[in-house]
Amino acid sequence: MRPRLLVLSRQGRASLPARAWPHLTALADVREVVCDRAPDPSVAAELLADVDVLAATNLCLPRIDEALLDAAPRLTGIVLYATGYDHLDLPLLRERGIALSVLPDYATEAVAETCLAQLLALATRLHLAHDRSRGSVPPSTSLRGVELARRTLGVVGVGRIGARVAELGRAIGMTVVGHDVDPVVRHERAAAGTAMVDLSELLAAGDAVALCASANQSGLPIIGAPELRLMRARAFLANVGRPQLVDTPAVLAAVRAGRLRGYAVDEIVLDPVRDADLLTEGRVLQTGHSAWWRDEVLRRGGDHWFEHIAAMLRGAPLDVVTGDESSTARLAGVVGAGGGRVEATA
Fold it and tell me: Is 309's pLDDT higher than 70?
């Protein structure tokens, strides 16, 4: 039997470049399903009953739990059209020998540029100048800002995105310090010229702090009330990672108290009634998970997804989070049963 591939996405065939489909159909029996949300558990179980590889966007990814995996005994690999994977049960996938492949590079530039834009908006109050010109905030709303040049930017999480944020910060004249829990990343960034410091030192030094870290599996925030007390008074905080990287009520309280000059987050965290004061004052900037939404990112994402799906089907998955020798062996067995190998490059 040839391996079976299921593709779940909102755009169907348009979610991948046209050139992908001849390659994928040569590698596997392919079924694509268009959906605007994750399938219900019973539907997902039916869809995955005889599938070897699942390729899904986050929007269409079903809940991966023991019940679903019991209903999908052939599943050997998941290729997720996303960079983050904190919402998945990694120990369960490892236990079942399922390789999880993600796309770490497709949105790096866009997200880093959004982080810089968030900081510039908070500093210049550009968003409020626009709102005031349209009459959507009172004329008394302050447009007085500050310059970021010659100030210190602290980058928490100096991986792909954080490293680029550091470069952009230096480009506008900021002094940059970084923090990362990964010793390899710390060494690499220090060798490249970024001063790497403890989190407490970074928070005390930063006129602006950029959160570019991945969410941890525990769900515990990096920035909570104790960390906020360490931050320089009237600092900016920008979060292009998950909202749970911070204790949101504590951050909003710090903004209201004037402890923080402003907070930007790539999500919607404010209640329009309860938090009307923050919306009017513009001290909290919400970008609604749009940091990655760029023409170039969509083209690049489709290419990368194709490349990663094809690699999974060839038994040599890319950027694997949960893979080990057992899952690779399972994949190799599936590919061997399919009889043929087709090289695909993106």
Answer: yes
